[in-house]
């Protein structure tokens, strides 16, 4: 999955009352990654840094 797809998936699962841990488990992401995506302003698209 691309970062844009991951972000869209997290934002799709969040309003369905899915918890942070469940989202991270389903998408195989760390909870900190999911938390960071949910805390970002909706219009901002940041590129991953290396």
Descriptive report:
By secondary structure, this protein is mainly alpha-helical. The protein has one domain (3-39). The chain is 56% helix and 0% strand. It contains 3 helices and no strands. The protein has helices at residues 3-13, 20-27, 31-39. The chain is globular, with a radius of gyration of 10 Å. The model has no long low-confidence stretch (mean pLDDT 85).
What's the overall geometry? globular
Q: What is the total domain count? A: 1
Specify the helix fraction band.
Answer: 55-70%
Helices and strands: which structural class? mainly alpha
Give the tally of β-strands: 0
Low-confidence stretches: none
| Strand residue percentage | under 5%
**Whole-Å distance between the termini?**
17 Å
H-E order: HHH
Helix count, DSSP H or I runs of 4 or more residues: 3
Mean pLDDT: 85
Biggest sheet record:
none
The radius of gyration over CA amounts to 10 Å
List the helices and strands and how they pair.
Blueprint: H1 3-13, H2 20-27, H3 31-39
Question: Can you give me a brief rundown of this structure?
Answer:
By secondary structure, the protein is mostly helical. It has one domain (3-39). Helix content is 56%, strand content 0%.
Please supply descriptive tags for the structure shown above.
3 helices; 50 residues; mainly alpha
